[in-house]
Amino acid sequence: MANQKASIYSALAANLLIAITKFIAGAFSNSASMISEGIHSVVDTVNQLLLLFGLQRSKKPADALRPFGYGKELYFYSFIVSILIFGLGGGISIYQGIIHISNPEPLGDPTWNYVVLALSVVFEGTSLIIAAKAFNKVRGHETWWNAIVKSKDPSSFLVLFEDGAAVLGLSIVMICMVIGHQFHIPQLDGVASLLVGLLLVGVSLILARESRSLLMGEGISAISRQKIVEKTEAVPGVVKVLTVVSTYQSPEEVLLMLIATFKEDLNTHQINEAIDAIQAGIRREFPLIRYIIVQPEEFTKQFKF
Question: Which CATH number fits the domain that encloses residue 49?
Fold first, then answer.
């Protein structure tokens, strides 16, 4: 988690400084694409603040109102971030692009734009490298995409996607700006803004999908589920595990419920001892599973799963 916070702080600092310089350069050069890039950086800055706020909220201890803690606050704010990228970042950039394609304005001196874009690529690229290194440490041997899909910590891949989109967006703006000034095509400024907007919309849809999935509740992997079944059925007195239900409350907390059958000759005290052994064994091997509910089958015959 410390690595992810470092990547968020680096992205926050980079985006805040870049946003200011982009707006100044856009105002002097009358460039819609540069203004769109400035909006993009402002949205990214707000996103980092929301992620940090979500991380802080998710660490609140459980209370009477939230007996399983506040871990899902992080998933909620991650979803909000994806919506902001879509609405503010993508929507405004697309609008600016359409306006400047329909009514192109004479381009001003692009010198400051080139300076700002070059510096932005350096800052955003540095932030992207930091985010990529942080995510690389947690993905293990998985491919990048599989690691993103399986990740339970949206703060890791959100920063990665944002920085990647920023670098790609800057490249699009720079290419369109060079060609537009070289061949005197002011419409390309609007085209660049439109392309940046479409890029942000595409990224936001991917992030919204992943954040929504986490917010709705994702369970443990099939491999972990099978290990838990085997470990539980190895406990003396347990006959069979009927159902395994789990959900991530946060990247570091899992809620697990087991429904199992026990030997008929066991009394209540013996069943409780077996349940204690089940819980202790699972916690030793799976430290992220903080809440474990074991329900004997005889008490759940009326329910269907």
Answer: 1.20.1510.10
